[in-house]
Amino acid sequence: MNPLNHVAIIMDGNGRWGVKNKNSRNLGHKEGLFAVEKIIKQTIKRDIKYLTLFAFSTENWKRPNIEIAYLFKLLEKFLKEKLSELDKQNIKLKIIGRRKFSLKLNKILEEAEKITFNNTKLQINLALNYGSKNELIDGIKLLNKKNEKITIKNISNNLYTKNIPDPDILIRTGNTKRLSNFLLWQLAYTEIFFEKKLWPDFNEKDYDKIIKKYKSIKRNFGNI
Q: 14-22 and 25-45 are packed helices; what angle lies between their axes, rounded to 10 degrees?
């Protein structure tokens, strides 16, 4: 049975769910937070140590300003209301991506990381303004600055995900089959599951079904 330490999720389909069910993309994003809470609880229940959530990509800046503003307001509200609960559950929060947000949001993110820094039950990596190509560029710049040799290990040690094991599973909801510039280096040997359901409809049973399937896969990593 395959060990499972790290699940990464592209939470796709919030906007489409909102238009379909509420006639509002924003309400779809709001509904998606309930799915986030369900999956966090199930991740803890399954004793998985790392959960990486793709919340906002470098390409998402192309969206309407009103939608972007709503997304960040929603994130601020979520962290203000849930941070204490996350801390009590022994959950560590880490932000990965280029931090180019408002002073207010940057402060909230920094505070969330500081408060939860020593927690050990589950580490949630929240990918915000994240793009894998930018991550690789930033990592190689750091590597050159430190005058380190270009090796697989040294590149990995200069990425946003330094000291985080590569994902065992990637789940993408929303019936879209692409990686969308997400963890391209880290996903080299990850088992990928594309889910037809839109993110707000994704639930614990769907999650467990994928986990069960993953554990039955024979993983060779290039071997026979």
A: 120
